[in-house]
Amino acid sequence: MITGDQLQLRVAAIRDISPTLRLVRFENAGDGPLPPSATGAHLQVVLQGAQKEIRNAYSLISKPGSRDAYEIIVRRVPESRGGSAYIHEQLKTGDLLTTSWPGNLFAPQRSARKHIMVAGGIGITPFLSYVADFAGKGIDYELHLCCREEEKDSFAPWLPEPDKVFVHWDADGHRLDIPALLLRQPANSHLYVCGPDFLTNDVLEAAETGGWPDNHVHCERFGNALSGGEAFRAVLQRSGKEIEVGEHESLLEAIEREGVEVPCLCRGGACGVCLTSVLDGEPEHRDHYLGKAERAGGKHIMPCVSRAKSGLLVLDL
Amino acid sequence: MTILFKPDETYRGDYTYRNSDAAILRFPFPFPEDSYMYSVNIEPHVRGGFTPVYNNPIDVDEHYIAECRDRAITLERDPGRYAALPHMMTAQWDSIELLMECLSSDYPELFSLHKDGDRWTWINRPLGIEQSFTFGKEDTLPCEPFEYITRQIQGDFAILDQRNGSLYLDAGMVTAQADWSLQFDVGMDFMEWHGPVPLAHQAGVFERALKYLLMLRQGQPMRRLNWTMTVNPRLDTSPETYPEWGPDRTTLTLDNIGRKLHLRVELQTLWRLPRSNAILFPLRGYLASLDELVRVPKWGRRLHRVLSTLPRELAEYKGLVRFLPTALEYLSTYDDGAPTTSGCAAEISSL
User: Fold this and answer.
1) Interface predicted TM-score of the whole assembly (ipTM), two decimals
2) I want to staple A265 with a disulfide (CB 3.0 to 4.6 A). Which of A194, A244, A273, B86 is the partner?
């Protein structure tokens, strides 16, 4: 398997590793080995919920390069958007699922002298592939996990070098002192954080206060896909069509679905070929092509990535 | 599909390199319009398109054996044409896996890859190679993994490391370049190595291209065509050997330019690598002489029009100024002024 964007996977095993943590192992339902998994990579999984299709991204915890299976760990959350509840209540061994290819917005920086990872609870999952990658290669790292005391040993099976892992919880003598941690690191350390917003913000703030260069500080950014967002409507004026742009498709895909042709090339907001005139409505620009003035003017849109702020766009198509 | 290799043709000395009729028809002619300017001409590298060159992600053609031999000669003379910085070893293994899988699945009659866990055996029939090695263990190959596989594939290769919001040219196998030096550029970032290109910076081309490439996804490679012109079918037009080929530009006359002047098209593809998160950047060159190109009437007309309207800065950057008038005089014979259709396709099926 060399190119593609979707995978068909079969649930090969489900195992609860704690009352709230479930491990799911996927194998290829198609032919041949899977595309190699990557350090810090995630998989977008499509789940058929009762009301609607759910697309959630989960970090791959498999050893980087794995091609026989992918593994994820999903926490059961009370305020689930649907994905967590579905995986904990409905998903069964043998189920077939559609997923993306592995994507990576959180790769380690190979030139770092040392890697400092700070995880909040389930935010440890991307770092499980980091430590699987680093272990035994003499790479210098520290992993700090902030979690509830009763969960402090849940991830031990995935941590091959326990002397480089430090677990913190909310009790005197066990809390993580972030500024102190950052202060004692050597030059050219890279800092990575994945967890709830309050932890991420604390870490980013401490790094800024501590004078860390921006490009040495990294946080996981799920939900930052190129396309997708709230649904909206678009009127294609010249074609006399009104279309619905779904949450999980781009404006360009919706236009193409209606059989209206738009010249396009890169489909990623860079080349400028799909530039389309906006007759009414306010675009939400996500491209790299339009300049500041053009964005502010609101007269053009790159439908391959950009969407609507206004709920309705009227396009010269 | 059987490829009839031309193992004895040469890219130096007596320059016996020629294209068969089939090779001319599949040439990736790079001009979709009658004029040319830089743009972010990146598109998904999917199978199929106006040229059969796009039928497989890595293209092997009739020049395969001769081109690999020419690379070996260049490396023998100057081993510095291959370089990889120490942190690129993971990306080297990513590359060998991707390239061996591409070749063995698309050309099973030429290449085989057998895997027994990490114990791999690679067979390259055209070059007569059989090699067993352990994936991930450098000392089981005769040279570094990236050098090993790129000695067996046409075109130059680079690996771009992604960090600091940019891409760094941290590994390369470069023996067929259009006058740039790996030794000079290795370790540079995207903006640095594109520094000398005229006009495109002002148009914001590189900022947009870089942002786009940083988001490149595994499994969804991209491609673009670039071009220049080369006197004689020579692969090694590097700064290091300029004294050997630079003076050739002064030898062109109206009588010999059709035979000696070649359009050099570079099919650049970009692949996100999995473990390393680096980008593999093959730069595959195709050479066709003016005599060969004008056998396709649309291409003869269009090349004349593109070259006659080329911005002066581009002609200077690409090193065309000295012979451009002679080339235009030659090509004018093949431009009857008839309109051309947009797109690059030859629009004929035999010559």
Assistant:
1) 0.85
2) A273
